[in-house]
Amino acid sequence: MAGIFAGLKVIDAATYVAGPSAATILGDFGASVIKLEPPGGDAYRMLATAPGQPQGETNYPWTLDNRSKRSLVLDLKRADAQAVLQRMVRSTDVFVTNTVPRLRASLGIEPGTLAALNPRLIYAALTAYGETGPEASKTGFDATAYWARSGLMDLVKSDAAAPPARSVAGMGDHPAGVALYGAIVTALYRRERTGEGGFVHTSLLDAGLWANSFMVQAALDGARFIPRPPRDRAPNAMVNLYRAGCGRWFLLALLNEARQWPMLVQVLGQPAWRDDPRFASQALRRVNASALAAMLDAAFASRSLAEWRPLLDAAGLTFDAVATTEEAAAAEQPRATGAIRPAADGRWTVDSPLHVAGEAKSAAGPPPALAADADAILAEHGYSPAEVLALREAGALG
């Protein structure tokens, strides 16, 4: 199927993950996406080879975030390359960048410059810290702006005395990309009503603060924060991590204690707990949470997670295993929902997390080789073979 955004033309001039992933979602729904790269290519092409990343035979991050795109290299530090982009922008619907504000003029990509060429253009900017303020041009990655700066890095420590928890690649970029996609689609809806394009933006910090907004709002309202205690002294034993007899960890999350406490006691085969005065009410279970956690530790250690799973499921008790990434990738459920779907080459890929009933997504095609589509893209924008050759010889095409 062509997709709901068939005919929509997108230039993805962003690098790495967050901005490009917004363009990827547009492409998933049928948009035509040109990946505009600097000379030498987007550095994201090399991330799979970075120390500590999973090693394999494919360029998995590049494939994920640049599927079905076409590549064009332009050296936007040159006036002749900027002229090429300006011609392209005249017939483009969405332009995506993560260039910081102070550098846009030198590349010929200021929002006002491009809007003057095409008033219907949606200019979508993704930055680390935002468009305004003292840090508007501060560079950053999701590890710094989304994870460390938002408070998330500090809050998810195992306890207050533990060192900060490191992030993993892309964990903040992809949520920020979804936010940028939402801004783009909102602007497209406005354009349908008014005929006007516009400037939309978000940042890694914006997305991080939104992800941490429960706690950030608490801080804004002057709430008193309680340092996170170790697991064995958790303030609520009914929402805590436990280890089964096989060594596997799982998270128990029982919020409806009036119904679920008696069921938990029954599943565990511990009827005497129901009459234990320390646990006679929700309030008392909070007061005696450490003692209850120790008892739950001992009880759950008596069986493997494979044995506990059907018992907990049958009782309707909310829990889940702490899965490895390999387990998450191999699971049946995300395949059933389409969260993991086949790519055009038959391999599996992670789908973008938006689904519209009745609107099938485009097949996930391969990512582009560097500058592989330059001649075709330039021809579509009115350049003759001789003109393309002249641009290439001059260095405009990188």
Secondary-structure topology with pairs:
Layout (H helix, E strand, L loop, with lengths): L8 E4 L5 H11 L3 E6 L22 H6 L4 E4 L5 H11 L4 E4 L3 H7 L3 H7 L4 E6 L14 H7 L3 H4 L17 H22 L3 E6 H8 L1 H8 L18 E5 L5 E5 L3 H12 L13 H6 L1 H12 L4 H10 L4 E3 L3 H6 L1 H6 L2 E3 L5 E3 L23 H7 L4 H10 L4
Parallel strand pairs: 1-2, 1-4, 2-3, 4-5, 5-6
Antiparallel strand pairs: 7-8, 8-9, 10-11
Helix pairs in contact: 1-8, 6-9, 8-9
Question: How would you portray this structure in words?
Answer:
The protein folds into 2 domains: 257 residues, Rossmann fold; 73 residues, no CATH class. With 398 residues, it is of the alpha/beta class. Strand 10 and strand 11 form a beta hairpin. A 6-stranded parallel β-sheet has the order 3-2-1-4-5-6, with helices on both faces. A 3-stranded antiparallel β-sheet has the order 7-8-9, covered by helices on one side. Helix 1 packs across helix 8, helix 6 runs parallel beside helix 9 and helix 8 packs across helix 9.
Give me some keywords for this one.
alpha/beta, 18 helices, 398 residues, 12% strand, Rossmann fold, 2 domains
DSSP E strands, number: 11
Major sheet characteristics: 6 strands, parallel
User: Spatial order of the strands in the main sheet?
Assistant: 3-2-1-4-5-6
Helix-residue proportion:
40-55%
Order of helical and strand elements: EHEHEHEHHEHHHEHHEEHHHHEHHEEHH
Compute the number of structural domains.
2
What fold name stands as the CATH topology of the largest domain? Rossmann fold
End-to-end distance: 35 Å
- Which class do the helix and strand fractions yield? alpha/beta
The oligomeric status of these chains comes to single chain
CATH superfamily of the largest domain: Crotonobetainyl-coa:carnitine coa-transferase, domain 1
Silhouette: elongated
Proper CATH architecture of the largest domain: 3-Layer(aba) Sandwich
- Which spans of ≥5 residues are poorly predicted at pLDDT below 50? none
